[in-house]
Amino acid sequence: xRSRTGASALALLIMTIAAPAGxxxxxxxxxxxxxxxxxxxxxxxxxxxxxxxxxVVSDGKTRLFGDQTxxxxxxxxxxxxxxxxxxxxxxxxxxxGSLLPVAGSCGGFEPGWNxxxxxGEARFTTINGQDxxxxxxxxxxxxxxxxxxxxxxxPASRATLTVAEEACPFLPVDSFVWGIAxxxxxxxxxxxxxxxxxxxxxxxxxx
Length: 207
Known about the structure:
Structural class: mainly beta
């Protein structure tokens, strides 16, 4: 009897993991209650707890276990599955007068580069070791287009980032990206450098 019960439970678990329950939108979600995060849907192991109000990221994958829908989530070092009824799509917070979020990150390859911004500051780094933090001087949008523009400037350098809110061709289609990035980096006494890449929203840009 124990053997049949164990086999039935194992079969149910395998069937649950193998059968997706559609998909949610990839993106950031807010925990509307304390989240119990398990290694897989319906696990009886001790869950990791994510506090109510935290912002988590999801790749949009969902699974059915019994009559409950579970969604894949992660935050920091914690990742796994939680019941979908305790998640709500997080709302983006935008910079005043701009389509850009208050915090975000853009980057690309050949050469490798990244620019991230939050709390009024933009940081530019490259694979060659360049690292500069500049105060944001302006943020806006281009009338009639789904573009956001951010400018940051220091004593001897200036960055102008333009982001088009559309699918980015520089990363796989299923990657969680927000738009296409075009960065012009100006260094005093040097020719301007132009970088192309993709942008990702980050948790600090959501509420």
